[in-house]
Specification:
Layout lengths: L7 E5 L4 E5 L7 E4 L2 H21 L26 H14 L3 H16 L6
Antiparallel strand pairs: 1-2, 2-3
């Protein structure tokens, strides 16, 4: 059976198109003017990457399992510096929201900015 590697597709303004990358295959990517084209091109890119890896005698990584939202509780604990905790608490108080709501807002805004406002 042929292994299936997870692929991530995102728009790149710099490349003026969509890039398909493989988290399990470092440096392996494909470009397309549409998401569908990038996905289609990604199959050949992965095949070439794996062929080169094998020819070089390098170990071929096993495909990882893509994260499934059902696998996550939506809760995690993090230790942060006291100064950052105080700064975040003051920011939450200024906005009139809980610390959890404020940190969630900051994380969501940062993720939206990093991903161009969309997810693949």
């Amino acid at each position: 059976m042929k292994p299936h590697y997870p692929v991530e597709i995102h728009y790149s303004a710099e490349d003026e198109g969509f890039l398909a990358t493989f988290p399990d295959l470092p440096g392996c990517s494909a470009w397309g003017s549409t998401e569908a084209e990038a996905l289609d091109e990604s199959h050949a890119a992965a095949a070439a990457w794996l062929k080169a890896c094998k020819a070089a005698g390098n170990p071929i990584p096993a495909p990882s399992n893509p994260a499934n939202e059902a696998d996550f509780s939506g809760r995690f604990v993090m230790r942060i510096p006291k100064r950052l905790h105080a700064d975040l608490s003051r920011g939450a108080r200024r906005q009139g929201v809980s610390l959890n709501q404020y940190v969630l807002y900051l994380l969501a805004a940062r993720e939206a900015s990093a991903s161009g406002g969309t997810h693949a």
